[in-house]
UniProtKB/TrEMBL annotation:
Species assigned in the record: Emiliania huxleyi (strain CCMP1516)
UniProt-listed InterPro entries: GMPPB_C (IPR056729), Mannose-1P_guanyltransferase (IPR050486), NTP_transferase_dom (IPR005835), Nucleotide-diphossugar_trans (IPR029044)
Protein name: Nucleotidyl transferase domain-containing protein
Family: Belongs to the transferase hexapeptide repeat family.
Chain ranges of the Mannose-1-phosphate guanyltransferase C-terminal domain: 258-366
Length: 367
């Protein structure tokens, strides 16, 4: 079986983190985002993944990264580059020959948006698709704020999708599109070649033709639209790891205390008297000095925190450093940001390569 991974763009909306790394290669719980998606596809029995992405702003290390992931996961990875923006459905059409082996493969295939993370019940989604026999099956989830995404209206008796409503002003449904699908190759006939076509055009047409089913997700789901959504996804992912991969989580030692779910890379160092957790990820080659308090935060590769600092609900970018006695709350630092000693950062968003020598008491973007 095959799958398609749709990358709309490489920068995404997680700036300033994606100013240094493309979104698919951004570290999430000490693995790249794309690794988590590819691993889920492999676990579902997928042997080949077609990665659709624009040919503009392709990262210099993209090819090497894809080759490394292919070898590590044992997946065949093939890139389909769009010469012109084609929309999400148009990108699928552009990859038709790769997905169908030039028309000789009529097996259904999985499609995953690259800016989405969830518990990926892909085998169940595939079984639901095969059982109902329509052209497409869409994974949905319930949202407390469905008007932010647009909603999916489902016939609860059959699971069939009747229609979509974009950002309703009154309650219509609380189910939204997860950006994860199973399609049969017949959908390619619905997509115009050499034109820009989005899923927002394709899916309503399929629903109108009674060719679109749904399956409700029972696990977590997040669309990576902001650094806040990134941090929320970390907590959910670590909670799942507690049950499915407890060995990947850290435990308290004689030197430091772990509370809740914490992931620490083997190359990272943590000083005496530190209290770490909950919902903390410490990346490769990070250095945490003595007496530090870390809570609900991620330290990306090479980040350093000096003694007696407090970091809460924040992301420290590649190679960034925090001085002694600092208090960092609700902030996101880009690559190689240096925060001097004894400063307060509250709601700061700092672009790469900056040195901070003053307090930031209220939300501010430092350019």
């Amino acid at each position: 079986m095959k799958a398609v991974l749709l990358i709309g763009n490489f920068s995404g909306s997680l700036r300033p983190l994606t100013l240094s790394q493309p979104l698919p290669l951004l570290r999430f719980c000490n693995r790249s985002l794309i690794f988590h998606q590819l691993q889920a596809l492999k676990d579902a029995g997928i042997s080949q993944v077609v990665i659709c992405h624009p040919n503009k702003e392709v990262p210099a290390d993209w090819t090497a990264a894809i080759e490394q992931l292919s070898g590590e996961l044992g997946l065949k990875l093939v890139c389909s580059q769009e010469t012109e923006p084609a929309g999400t459905a148009g990108a699928l059409k552009h990859a038709e020959a790769l997905v169908t082996d030039d028309g000789t493969n009529d097996a259904p295939f999985i499609v995953v948006n690259a800016d989405v993370l969830c518990s990926y019940p892909l085998r169940d989604l595939l079984l639901a698709h095969l059982k109902r026999g329509r052209e497409g099956t869409l994974l949905t989830t319930r949202s407390e704020e469905p008007s932010e995404y647009g909603v999916v209206v489902v016939d609860e008796r059959t699971g069939g999708i009747t229609h979509f409503v974009d950002r309703p002003e009154t309650f219509v449904s609380d189910r939204i599109n997860c950006g994860v699908y199973v399609f049969s190759p017949a959908i390619f006939e619905r997509i115009r070649a050499s034109s820009r076509v989005s899923m927002n055009e394709l899916l309503p047409a399929m629903a109108k033709a009674e060719q679109l089913n749904s399956m409700l997700l029972s696990g977590y789901w997040v669309k990576l639209t902001s650094t806040r959504s990134y941090m929320g996804a970390v907590a959910s992912h670590l909670e799942i790891a507690r049950y499915l991969a407890p060995a990947s989580l850290a435990e308290s030692t004689a030197d430091f205390t772990v509370t809740g779910n914490v992931m620490v890379h083997p190359s990272a160092t943590i000083g005496k008297g530190c209290v770490v957790g909950p919902a903390v990820v410490i990346g490769p080659n990070c250095r945490v000095a003595e007496g530090v308090r870390l809570e609900s935060c991620t330290l990306l590769e090479g980040a350093a925190v000096a003694s007696h600092a407090i970091i809460r609900e924040s992301v420290l970018g590649l190679g960034s450093s925090i001085g002694r006695w600092c208090f960092v709350n609700g902030s996101v630092l880009g690559e190689a940001v240096e925060v001097c000693e004894a400063l307060l950062l509250n709601g700061a968003t700092v672009l790469p390569q900056k040195q901070l020598e003053r307090n930031i008491r209220s939300p501010e973007i430092v350019i």
